[in-house]
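$ ./design --mode recover --in tokens.txt
reading tokens...
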């Protein structure tokens, strides 16, 4: 992945992460309609990011794949809280599964990049650090 695309992808991952925090805060205060709206926006951003990264092979896309599935979970949780069925998440999951599972990973569940690396303590990690106390020295 070239540097410009990698930078853009990292920015999108950060945006979706911040949106998921907003969803959690909305759910915490009982504002489920906002949680639904924000989580749907986050899923759409994740989906568009994965479409742009469709030609990228390797662990660089794994965090984006995991985040897309997480945003679908957010939609499901928020909709369940208001007692509404979840047709958007179901259709989104179906389209995401066809993109990821069939088109990109040969009909296998996506592997996370965390499974590819471990910290000096032997724990799985994405960035080389773990949550062990005292802080992990990293790589």
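writing sequence...
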């Amino acid at each position: 992945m070239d540097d410009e695309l990698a930078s853009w992808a990292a920015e999108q991952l950060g945006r979706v992460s911040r949106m998921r925090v907003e969803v959690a805060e909305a759910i915490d205060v009982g504002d489920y309609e906002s949680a639904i709206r924000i989580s749907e926006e986050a899923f759409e951003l994740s989906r568009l990011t994965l479409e742009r990264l469709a030609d990228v092979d390797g662990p660089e896309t794994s965090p984006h794949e995991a985040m897309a599935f997480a945003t679908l979970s957010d939609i499901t949780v928020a909709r369940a809280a208001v007692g509404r069925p979840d047709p958007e998440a179901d259709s989104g999951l179906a389209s995401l599964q066809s993109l990821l599972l069939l088109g990109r990973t040969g009909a296998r569940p996506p592997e996370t990049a965390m499974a590819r690396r471990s910290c000096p303590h032997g724990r799985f990690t994405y960035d080389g650090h773990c949550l062990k106390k005292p802080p992990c020295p990293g790589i």
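exit 0
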